[in-house]
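the two lines:
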Amino acid sequence: MKQNNTTKWHKLDNTANIFPVVANKRMPNVFRLTAVLKEEIDPVLLQQALEETLPWFAAFGVRMKQGVFWSYLETNKAVPRVQEEKECPCRYIDPFQNRKFLFKLLYYQNRVHLEVFHVLSDGTGGMRFLKAICYKYIQLAHSEAFTKQQLATTYGLVGADNTDDGYMKNYVPRAGANFKEPTALHIKGEKLPVDETNVLSGLIHVEQLKAVCKAKEASVTEYITACIIYGVYTEYATETSRHPISIFIPVNLRRFFGTDTSLNFFSNIMVSVPVTGCGLQFENVLAQVKQQFAQKLTREALEKKLAYTAGTEKKLAVRLTPLPIKNMIMRFVFSRSRNGATLTLSNLGVQAVEPIFEPYFEGFRFLLSTNTKEPIKITAGSYKNQMALCFNSLVSENRLAKAVFRILAKEGISVTVESNGGFHEKM
Amino acid sequence: MKRCNECKVNIVDNTELCPLCNAPLEEVEGQPCTSVYPVQLQSTRYNFVKRLLVYLSVLGAGACAIVNYFQWQGKAWSLIPITALAFLWLVGPQAVRRGGNVAAKVMRIIFATCAYLVILDCLLGYRGWAIDYGIAIALCAGVLAIDIIMIVRRESFEKYVWYQGILVLCGLIPLVLFFTGVAASRLFAFITAGVALASLLATFVFGDRNAKNEFKRRFHV
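prediction for all of em together
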């Protein structure tokens, strides 16, 4: 096993700098990745799997410290503990609690949940870590099913020790551009208490979904985005709504720039559809979504955005500003830029596992924490013939999920719903 | 498994109503219901002791202010217990909070103590004792406390180097105050600066490369 005795450290990546400044109980900036296995989880073996896997993942075995000019992450020599899931998903991870680890590994029945404070990594990096833990767990739980060579191999380590800052590595100076988004329509509703959340996942038949998307000449993400926009329109827009429905869509930059880091490396596009009275049709929404995806989801457009955010961090004046002042400025700028999105849709894409472990996996789920400006966050990810479209909501009713799933069901797509009962608890 | 005929979706949970539309559900035979989330526990605990202490503090402060007002003899003496309570509420939670760097806690408590000493001196008619030797003694105590922590936990002493560095820097303040004529006590100013610099020197002499690396990390731009 790889030993880690020295105090190594790395800087926060360009995106991560904002998360510790603005995170709190109402805005935890935590995401949850779930691996659904086909058997009940043994916590002792899961603990062993975590302890054997963590040293390989430099991005996760760390704690956060504050320097004079920047926060940074250094080796955490403590041992993290797996915990049984007892509370709501995506709760705030206090950097001083949890043995100072910025992730949690939880289990419940046949599910392993990895909750990660976004300062460490993004969904792609987190999923790598979760899969590696699960591979090790399966090796420990089913040693009889593998050859000696297979048991001696640690799987899922591709890119595990890569802590490059993809933003800085791919930074190319570009002419200044303004990425400020206009104020979007916001979802209103009765808020749940702090530390409570309403989770609802729809398990969608992928082949049926793809057939509908093919008929409409759209990608899966484009079609789901259009369904969500139309759902917001039918459930929350009124005749007097002035602001557009804007969906914030994170984009994995690894496939555009080829940097395979375990840290955050994503950007975003904003898909925005104006609300004009009561005449909006679904086909019209889908056409606008497809047009904006084609326009915004290009390497050149993403490079401009990357240059804008990374360029700020490169300025000498910014670098030499003491951290407390920098934090105040970041907090102010962030508070002014929070009105641009109605909600977030993050699609992790198709998940695959090492072929020898396939018989043990049933599926994956992905959840993002909410905040008061974006009380609903939607996430997607598919495994084999099942796509999990998950709604994490701070509001007590499920109107948007109902609208979206009814659109899908109307198209003949099979949907199976699982929830945490947050809706019924309020009744 | 159950089915909602209004939404045309299947429901995995063992529930009577559709989580989407609240309509009654129909049983799907041969497919059992499962609960994929645990019953959520109430996460916020009711802290009776803390609430009682808050209540008594506010009551006590209020009583002092009222007595002071009705028995007014030209001095706002009630500010002394009120500021004392505020000081205790400022440093108390810091001291008892689990987790966090113990040297950071010491540093914050020392800073709060210095501020309180100056306020107290002002409330008592300002004779300058806080500036002359109050702050110096507090800073000396802080530096020595962190030294002791570093000796006791020498395996991970680099965790405390940063806070020691800050307190050492602050340990030079009494000297600055003396040379600028704000403080009168040369003895306390020199003792504090001496203790602070001796501590820092010891860290660099006895400490290894980790101490320097800690500073390198903290100052990275």
